[in-house]
From TrEMBL:
It holds the Pfam family PDGLE. The keyword Transmembrane applies. It is found in: Cell membrane. This is Cobalamin biosynthesis protein CbiM. GO terms for cellular component: plasma membrane. It comes from Clostridium butyricum. Keywords: Cell membrane, Membrane, Transmembrane, Transmembrane helix, Transport. It is a multi-pass membrane protein. One of its GO terms (biological process) is transition metal ion transport. Residues 226-325 form the PDGLE domain.
């Protein structure tokens, strides 16, 4: 559900950029007070996992469309909502800057649409409440599906509103929403099943991770996260290097919705802000669309992109956690 720049006006891009920046600032402020040391390596590993997992589009049967997980709920369930939003923002920014996935102007919209609802709203208000009394596999899967579906419905509706406010007459509100909401309902079910499977696996290894995050408690000194880190590193490498080769080639839910209205999967828009954004992205993206620029060896390019993107995400998300932790320690020393 990565929006391209052509879907939004510079004014909407500016407003959503400001809203997202303010939300990120608030998250950093909150994280300075309560980010755990043990969560820092998990920020890197889980960020890399979500980056690679987002590369794998799954087919929505009978539609000619596909979808991929957003990853916000997985991150929130493991890290807590605040670090999760910071990590997901990192993932989406890396996708836009280095892999030309989602527009630079649309970056604020994409972070908000995919991260705000899943991490900051429906994880604490819905998933957390559903999981209060039991962490059985059945409950984890049901809570994951329900939360993923609702969060994605709000994200998809936000995309429709942002294009409406941007004056994109090619996408009439009624036609766009009739396509966007049902297809993302189906994608939400797929994401919920995948999220539930991942969280069941993590809970089977170290149940305290999910339970303590939900109750806003710190992990006790005796709780080790090494096994989760190692297993997720291996899983991330397999997903990014191998499974990414078998992603569905159908357009995602947003592209599919646009295509059914305009007969094209993307819109085009001219103007200086769009040219500047495009030039920045051309200069910064070394593997656009997760492949080599010369388009040779597409399969190898996809594997390299998955491994490279996962590594970059790991390093940057880890550094964000370390910097926040250092600031936290400096504040305590005064």
């Amino acid at each position: 559900m990565h929006m391209s720049d052509a879907l939004i006006s510079p004014e909407v891009a500016g407003v959503m950029g400001a809203v997202t920046t303010a939300t990120l600032g608030w998250c950093v402020h909150k994280a300075k007070n309560n980010l755990e040391e043990k969560k820092i390596p998990l920020m890197g590993v889980m960020g890399a996992f979500v980056f690679c997992a987002q590369m794998i589009n799954f087919t929505i049967p009978g539609t000619g469309s596909s979808g991929h997980i957003g990853g916000g709920l997985i991150l929130a369930a493991v890290l807590g909502p605040i670090p999760a939003f910071l990590v997901l923002a990192t993932v989406i920014a890396i996708q836009a800057l280095f892999f030309a996935d989602g527009g630079i102007l649309a970056l604020g919209c994409n972070i908000f649409n995919m991260g705000f609802y899943s991490c900051l709203v429906f994880y604490p208000l819905l998933f957390g409440k559903l999981m209060k009394n039991s962490y059985s596999k059945k409950r984890i899967i049901i809570a994951s599906i329900v939360t993923s579906v609702i969060a994605l419905q709000f994200g998809a509706f936000s995309v429709v509103l942002e294009t409406l406010m941007s004056g994109r007459s090619q996408l009439p509100f009624n036609s766009f929403i009739i396509l966007m909401q049902p297809i993302h309902f189906a994608i939400g079910i797929g994401e919920g099943l995948i999220t539930g499977a991942v969280l069941c696996y993590i809970h089977s290894i170290r149940p305290e991770i999910l339970e303590f995050a939900n109750n806003d408690k710190k992990l006790s000194p005796g709780v080790s996260v090494k096994k989760i880190i190692l297993s997720m590193v291996v899983l991330t490498g397999i997903i990014g290097g191998v499974f990414s080769l078998y992603a569905s080639e159908y357009p995602d839910g947003l592209e599919w919705s646009i295509g059914n209205i305009t007969s094209e999967e993307e819109l085009s828009y001219e103007g200086q802000p769009y040219e500047i954004s495009e030039n920045i992205q051309k200069a910064s993206s070394f593997m656009p669309d997760y492949s080599f620029k010369n388009n040779e060896d597409v399969k190898i390019g996809t594997s390299v992109a998955g491994l490279a993107g996962g590594t970059i995400t790991f390093v940057i998300a880890l550094l964000i956690g370390i910097v926040i932790s250092k600031i936290k320690k400096l504040r305590r020393s005064y």
